[in-house]
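Subject: sequence -> C-alpha coordinates, single chain

Hey, anyone have a minute? Need the predicted structure for the following. Not urgent.
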Amino acid sequence: MWAAGPGFLIRDRDGKFPALFDAVLTDAGIEVVLSGIRMPRMNSITERWVQTCRREMLDRTLIWNQRHLLDALGEFETFYNEHRPHPGLANARPHHSLPAPIEDPDRIAHLNIRRRVRLGGTLPEYHMPPDQRG
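Reply:
Had a minute. Here:
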Protein backbone atom coordinates (compact mmCIF):
# COMPACT_ATOMS: atom_id res chain seq x y z
CA MET A 1 0.00 0.00 0.00
CA TRP A 2 1.10 3.52 -0.73
CA ALA A 3 1.40 5.93 2.18
CA ALA A 4 1.09 9.01 -0.04
CA GLY A 5 -0.59 9.23 -3.40
CA PRO A 6 1.17 8.55 -6.68
CA GLY A 7 4.10 10.87 -7.34
CA PHE A 8 4.43 10.42 -11.09
CA LEU A 9 2.71 8.96 -14.13
CA ILE A 10 4.63 7.36 -16.97
CA ARG A 11 2.81 7.65 -20.29
CA ASP A 12 3.55 7.45 -23.97
CA ARG A 13 3.42 10.34 -26.43
CA ASP A 14 0.07 9.41 -27.94
CA GLY A 15 -2.04 12.28 -29.25
CA LYS A 16 -5.03 11.16 -27.18
CA PHE A 17 -3.43 12.88 -24.16
CA PRO A 18 -3.99 16.64 -24.59
CA ALA A 19 -2.01 19.30 -22.75
CA LEU A 20 -4.98 19.71 -20.39
CA PHE A 21 -4.47 16.10 -19.23
CA ASP A 22 -0.92 16.90 -18.12
CA ALA A 23 -2.03 20.18 -16.53
CA VAL A 24 -4.65 18.43 -14.38
CA LEU A 25 -2.09 15.89 -13.18
CA THR A 26 0.47 18.60 -12.45
CA ASP A 27 -2.12 20.53 -10.40
CA ALA A 28 -2.74 17.35 -8.41
CA GLY A 29 0.99 17.12 -7.61
CA ILE A 30 1.69 14.27 -10.03
CA GLU A 31 4.71 14.60 -12.31
CA VAL A 32 4.14 13.40 -15.88
CA VAL A 33 7.06 11.41 -17.33
CA LEU A 34 6.95 10.75 -21.06
CA SER A 35 8.30 7.53 -22.52
CA GLY A 36 11.25 7.84 -24.85
CA ILE A 37 10.95 8.50 -28.55
CA ARG A 38 11.21 5.33 -30.69
CA MET A 39 11.41 3.13 -27.59
CA PRO A 40 8.40 0.82 -27.97
CA ARG A 41 9.51 -1.64 -25.27
CA MET A 42 9.55 1.08 -22.62
CA ASN A 43 5.76 1.28 -22.65
CA SER A 44 4.92 -2.28 -23.72
CA ILE A 45 6.16 -3.91 -20.49
CA THR A 46 3.81 -1.77 -18.41
CA GLU A 47 0.92 -2.31 -20.82
CA ARG A 48 1.44 -6.07 -20.63
CA TRP A 49 1.33 -6.02 -16.80
CA VAL A 50 -1.85 -3.92 -16.82
CA GLN A 51 -3.43 -6.27 -19.37
CA THR A 52 -2.53 -9.31 -17.23
CA CYS A 53 -3.81 -7.63 -14.07
CA ARG A 54 -7.12 -6.79 -15.74
CA ARG A 55 -7.59 -10.24 -17.32
CA GLU A 56 -6.57 -12.35 -14.32
CA MET A 57 -7.87 -10.26 -11.43
CA LEU A 58 -9.92 -7.13 -12.11
CA ASP A 59 -12.27 -8.71 -14.68
CA ARG A 60 -13.17 -11.35 -12.08
CA THR A 61 -13.39 -9.18 -8.97
CA LEU A 62 -16.06 -6.76 -7.81
CA ILE A 63 -14.16 -3.81 -6.32
CA TRP A 64 -16.03 -1.97 -3.57
CA ASN A 65 -13.86 1.11 -2.94
CA GLN A 66 -10.33 2.49 -3.22
CA ARG A 67 -9.07 0.64 -0.14
CA HIS A 68 -10.35 -2.67 -1.50
CA LEU A 69 -8.73 -1.90 -4.88
CA LEU A 70 -5.34 -1.17 -3.27
CA ASP A 71 -5.55 -4.35 -1.15
CA ALA A 72 -6.49 -6.45 -4.19
CA LEU A 73 -3.70 -4.94 -6.31
CA GLY A 74 -1.17 -5.58 -3.53
CA GLU A 75 -2.30 -9.19 -3.27
CA PHE A 76 -2.12 -9.59 -7.07
CA GLU A 77 1.36 -8.05 -7.16
CA THR A 78 2.57 -10.57 -4.59
CA PHE A 79 0.90 -13.41 -6.50
CA TYR A 80 2.35 -12.18 -9.82
CA ASN A 81 5.93 -11.87 -8.52
CA GLU A 82 6.10 -14.83 -6.16
CA HIS A 83 3.82 -17.56 -7.44
CA ARG A 84 2.40 -17.06 -10.94
CA PRO A 85 4.33 -19.03 -13.57
CA HIS A 86 5.50 -16.84 -16.47
CA PRO A 87 5.62 -18.37 -19.98
CA GLY A 88 8.51 -16.10 -20.99
CA LEU A 89 10.61 -17.47 -18.11
CA ALA A 90 10.09 -21.16 -18.98
CA ASN A 91 7.12 -21.18 -16.56
CA ALA A 92 9.34 -20.19 -13.64
CA ARG A 93 8.24 -17.68 -11.03
CA PRO A 94 10.20 -14.41 -11.20
CA HIS A 95 11.56 -14.56 -7.64
CA HIS A 96 12.21 -18.32 -7.66
CA SER A 97 14.26 -20.59 -9.87
CA LEU A 98 12.61 -23.37 -11.84
CA PRO A 99 12.58 -26.58 -9.74
CA ALA A 100 14.33 -29.70 -10.97
CA PRO A 101 12.02 -32.04 -12.90
CA ILE A 102 10.66 -35.09 -11.10
CA GLU A 103 11.38 -38.10 -13.29
CA ASP A 104 10.81 -40.97 -10.86
CA PRO A 105 7.30 -42.42 -11.54
CA ASP A 106 6.91 -43.49 -7.90
CA ARG A 107 7.54 -39.93 -6.70
CA ILE A 108 5.09 -38.49 -9.22
CA ALA A 109 2.33 -40.88 -8.10
CA HIS A 110 2.62 -39.76 -4.45
CA LEU A 111 2.81 -35.98 -4.71
CA ASN A 112 1.02 -34.00 -2.01
CA ILE A 113 -0.02 -30.77 -3.73
CA ARG A 114 -2.09 -28.29 -1.73
CA ARG A 115 -4.29 -25.53 -3.11
CA ARG A 116 -4.26 -22.09 -1.49
CA VAL A 117 -7.03 -19.67 -2.40
CA ARG A 118 -6.30 -15.94 -2.65
CA LEU A 119 -8.76 -13.11 -3.24
CA GLY A 120 -11.79 -15.35 -2.73
CA GLY A 121 -10.74 -17.92 -5.33
CA THR A 122 -9.71 -15.49 -8.06
CA LEU A 123 -6.02 -16.37 -7.68
CA PRO A 124 -5.49 -20.08 -6.96
CA GLU A 125 -2.04 -21.21 -5.90
CA TYR A 126 -0.74 -24.76 -5.77
CA HIS A 127 2.05 -25.68 -3.33
CA MET A 128 4.11 -28.78 -2.76
CA PRO A 129 5.76 -29.37 0.64
CA PRO A 130 9.52 -28.61 0.62
CA ASP A 131 10.49 -32.24 1.29
CA GLN A 132 8.87 -33.33 -2.00
CA ARG A 133 10.56 -30.75 -4.21
CA GLY A 134 13.45 -31.68 -6.46
